[in-house]
């Protein structure tokens, strides 16, 4: 009987990972520039212009602009918007807003993809905890990206990280249903889809060079969302606030390598 070969998460050579890291560094710089510009009275369309300028000045191209018709260089998701918020002159930042910025860049044919949630001015304790819980859940998923792991080992690590954060902060967090991470390389979205919760030990095998975008999305309430009539913007059904953190990560012999590092 012929044994069935275990499917693997697609992998890259060391040189290709360096090329992805170069694209990812541009994304990191764009996110830092956007956060620095995110002040009271600034619109999300203004932030989009900042990100596009950083990306193009570095010789790269925004991944998002024109992707299936998306009009922006970033997804700008404010308060109850979970993901895919369209930059707009009518969305003007106010004190205490919770802002999630998702950004991508293509350099020499390779993609970087990362998201960051932060506050405008001072956040409420609940919003601060939500963002921190999402970051910690992402980091738990990143730590599970090791040679020989299975895809859902990462899913389980993210879910476990969320439940641990609930104990740390004394709050409940909703893991947004139906959204998750993905493969990435010469295309922004590749198989496999990476759920943000689930039992471990299933799915494709991770090997040296495997690359994934890890991106938990948590809320202060429901796990249910609705896509608005613009066919992009996703909001929580109960109006609760949401956070989104993401890094592009590779498996290496020395452990996980974050390919979307931000300048300090």
Quick one: CATH superfamily? Creatinase/methionine aminopeptidase superfamily
Give, in spatial order, the strands making up the sheet with the most strands.
Answer: 8-7-9-14-15
What spatial form do the alpha-carbon principal axes imply?
Answer: globular
- Rounded to an integer in angstroms, the radius of gyration calculated over CA atoms is 18 Å
The helix content is 25-40%
If helices are DSSP runs of H or I spanning 4 or more residues, what is the number of helices? Answer: 4
The main pleated sheet reads as: 5 strands, antiparallel
Structural class: alpha+beta
Average predicted confidence as pLDDT: 97
What's the β-strand tally? 15
Number of domains: 1
Please report the first level of CATH classification, the CATH class. Answer: Alpha Beta
Order of helices and strands: HHEEEEEHHEEEEEEEEEE
Uncertain regions: pLDDT < 50 for 5+ in a row?
none
Q: What is the CATH architecture assignment?
A: Alpha-Beta Complex
Beta-strand proportion: 25-35%
End-to-end Cα distance, whole Å, is 55 Å
What would the CATH topology be?
Answer: Creatine Amidinohydrolase
């Amino acid at each position: 009987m012929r044994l069935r070969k275990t499917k693997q998460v697609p992998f890259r050579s060391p040189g290709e990972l360096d090329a992805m890291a170069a694209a990812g560094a541009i994304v990191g710089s764009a996110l830092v520039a956007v956060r620095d510009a995110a002040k009271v009275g600034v619109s999300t369309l203004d932030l989009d212009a900042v990100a596009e300028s950083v990306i193009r000045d570095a010789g790269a191209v925004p991944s998002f602009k024109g992707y299936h018709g998306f009009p922006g260089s970033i997804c700008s998701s404010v308060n109850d918007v979970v993901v895919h918020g369209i930059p707009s002159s009518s969305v003007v930042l106010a004190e205490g807003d919770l802002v999630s910025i998702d950004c991508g860049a293509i350099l020499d044919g390779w993609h970087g993809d990362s998201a960051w949630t932060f506050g405008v001015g001072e956040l409420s304790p609940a919003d601060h905890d939500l963002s921190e819980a999402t970051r910690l859940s992402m980091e738990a998923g990143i730590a599970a990206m090791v040679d020989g792991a299975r895809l859902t080992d990462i899913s389980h690590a993210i879910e476990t990280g969320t439940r641990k954060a609930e104990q740390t902060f004394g709050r409940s967090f909703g893991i947004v249903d139906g959204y998750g991470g993905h493969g990435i390389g010469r295309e922004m979205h590749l198989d496999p889809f990476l759920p943000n919760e689930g039992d471990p030990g299933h799915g494709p095998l991770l090997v040296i060079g495997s690359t994934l975008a890890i991106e938990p999305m948590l809320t202060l309430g429901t796990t249910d969302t609705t896509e608005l009539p613009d066919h992009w913007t996703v909001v929580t059904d109960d109006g609760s606030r949401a956070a989104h953190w993401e890094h592009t990560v590779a498996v290496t012999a020395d452990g996980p390598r974050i390919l979307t590092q931000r300048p300090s």
